[in-house]
């Protein structure tokens, strides 16, 4: 029993786990641009980098304000589509708000109708009691 207790005890400072040191990682970048001096980089990339632009399937895409926007092709421009999408989201939110307001108004109407019927019943009860007393 004593041996079991000793084996179950966790040493406070002894038998520490010490893994082997990992070797340093190789550079993740395969680009050699970071090795070029400033003047060479300016010649290669230009002074103004600007937003990234790419051409896919005959459409030119530009990265602006965190989103890819099409610059060519299609019936509507990319900016117009984004504006319409934002407007659609706004209208959906407004629609949800109006549905909530209608639900609240219907609840209020139901509560008022119930109160009216209760009052009407009370009036009828008072009338019948008054008739019995006569």
List the helices and strands and how they pair.
Elements (H helix, E strand, L loop, with lengths): L1 H7 L29 H8 L7 E4 L2 E6 L2 E4 L7 H56 L1
Antiparallel strand pairs: 1-2, 2-3
Describe this structure as you would to a colleague.
The chain is mostly helical and 134 residues long. It has helices spanning 2-8, 38-45, 78-133, and strands at residues 53-56, 59-64, 67-70. A hairpin with a 2-residue loop joins strand 2 and strand 3 (67-70). The mean pLDDT is 79.
Summarize the structure in short.
By secondary structure, the protein is mainly alpha-helical.
Q: Termini distance? A: 96 Å
Structural class: mainly alpha
String of helices and strands: HHEEEH
Largest sheet: 3 strands, antiparallel
How large a portion of the residues is in β-strands, by DSSP E? 5-15%
> How many beta strands in the DSSP annotation?
3
- Considering DSSP H and I runs of 4 or more, what fraction of the residues is helical? 40-55%
Parts with pLDDT < 50 across at least 5 consecutive residues: none
Shape: elongated
Radius of gyration: 38 Å
User: How are the strands of the largest sheet arranged?
Assistant: 1-2-3
